[in-house]
Structures are given as structure tokens and as C-alpha cells.
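Subject: Sanity check before I submit

Could someone independently write out the C-alpha cells for this chain? I want to compare against mine line by line before I put it in a report. The sequence has 167 residues.
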Amino acid sequence: MTTTQRPVAEGLFTWPPSASEPLRLIGSECTACGLVSFPAASDCVRCASDESKTRLLADRGTLWTYTTQNFRPPSPPYDGPEAFEPYAVGYVELAGELLVEARLTEPDPEKLRIGQDMRLTLVPYAVRDDGTEVMTFAFAPVEESTAVEESTSVEEFAQADPVEEAS
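---
Independent answer below. Compare away.
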């Protein structure tokens, strides 16, 4: 059986993600003062300008803070599944842009840490009565091995082409 998927809300992230258009959050940038907002806003909360442009936000960031949601939130506004599973939520800093509040894919607080590298991903939010899977964005920890490999590559590059001092 093929499951139909849809975004939790239109205009939050690129949909559907593909190789030519990878997953990105959709924000806005005030053309008057440069404030970046998420979700996208037509009016600026800093300068009250009503001129903004759409901006795709970074897909990687740093975990700024987090907490765990260990009980089912009240409904409304929560409209997720009845069978509740605890999850983590946090603020992820997108360097040079803003802090984004988001669900985290790792629910175990022992596996999360402030300053941890995070990457944007999609997770199921709910399944509707017709079988449609509702997808939302979340941030997942970047595996430590990937970070180590990337830093090793940079160090190797720097060592492979040393700069000679003029004598």
C-alpha cells in the first residue's frame, strides 16, 4: 500500500523535497532592516515594514537549548496521535540567521547536548483517517563520526599544503 504524504502546513518547508530541491525551511527577510523570520512573515516585527522577501534557511545548525515533552499535550491545540511517545523539542541556531524552535528526532536527553550539530529532516507527525501521513520538520543530531571525518579532512588539507614563511 502506498502512503500519501503531505506537509503539516503549507509554506513552512520546501515540499516535496527532492534531489534538485532539498529540504529547507522557508523564512522571510525584511527588505528594510534585514530581520530574518521563521515562519515567513509579511510584516517585520522589528521595524514594522510590510516589505519582505522569501528566504530559504540553512539546513544545518547548532542545538542552542532543549527540553523533553514527556506527556501528551492538551487537545486542542495538539492534534497528534492518541498513542503518545515522548519527544524532545529545542531551539536550533541557524548561524547568521535565527533560532528555530523545532522537534528533535532524538528523544533521549542523555544523547543531546548544547552546541551539538544538527541537520534538518522530516518526521511523521500524524496519520489521518484516510491513511495520509502528515509530515513535519525536525532536527536530527549529526553523527559524531561525520563531524570527526570532516574536521580530519580539513586538518589533512591544511597539513598537505603548508605555507612557507618568508626568510
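---
OP: Matches mine. For the report I'm noting this point. Residues 28 and 51 are 10 Å apart (CA to CA).
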